[in-house]
Design goal:
Elements lengths: L2 H18 L6 H4 L5 H17 L4 E7 L3 H7 L5 E6 L3 E3 L2 E3 L8 E10 L9 H6 L1 E11 L10 H6 L6 E4 L10 H4 L1 E6 L2 E7 L7 H14 L9 E6 L4 E2 L5 E6 L4 E6 L1
Parallel strand pairs: 1-10, 3-7, 4-13
Antiparallel strand pairs: 1-2, 5-6, 5-10, 5-11, 6-7, 8-9, 8-12, 12-13
Length: 260
Amino acid sequence: MTTRDWIEETAATLHSARTERRPVEPLTARFPQLTVADAYQIQQAGIALRVREGAKTAGHKVGLTSEAMQRQLGVGEPDYGILLDSMIVPTGGEVAVDELIAPRVEAEIAVLMKHALAGAVTEAEAGDAIAAAVPALEIIDSRIADWRIALADTIADNASSGLAVVGETAGLGTPSELATQTVALYEDDVVVAEGNGAALLGNPLRSLAWLARTLDSHGAGINGGDIVLLGAVHASVSMQPGRTYLAVYSSWGAVQFTAS
């Protein structure tokens, strides 16, 4: 089997795990030689499968930007995944728990891009490319059994992406507001997590600049009109059926969904 065949086969295995909701053993346990570069190729092949089925790209997510999430999942650097239109849920929507595998909820700092961004951009250039802030909840999920992931596992699995619940865009006074924005996550009427934008590598603009540089190294970039989830402000919370999850931002409004 050639390397390309192996990448395609592994992507197909993860694709089936997602559609059939049957998790697989960690890839890094089965293939100890799996590298981060291999993992991003598997991710790209998996996205290509979904695009062939009719999905369209809608943006990106940056994962593992906060110390809380790195500590929770036992990894030490960020990663990224691709958002598809089929993954976007409007605020107020309903999400079925049994259509996922092991979903967890995160309140995000997210943005809508004004124009394309690629290459070795500065934080200031990253800020200039933003059109608006986006209140967002990410529902992460893992096709790897019991969340037993190393960095290469989660990258191959599209950065453990599940769904993104997005609210109405909010005006951004200055890009520095991204770092000072505070968010409280409610499960029904109880605050279960909270944090602020500074949790994302010290400044969410660093997360956006990191994404632009890393995508560029893989021959890709951020497009105007993309939604970019820049990272969670707290450790993820297990998603429970029958509960409503609400993220309230200090000046961007709120976003919510109900788990069924």
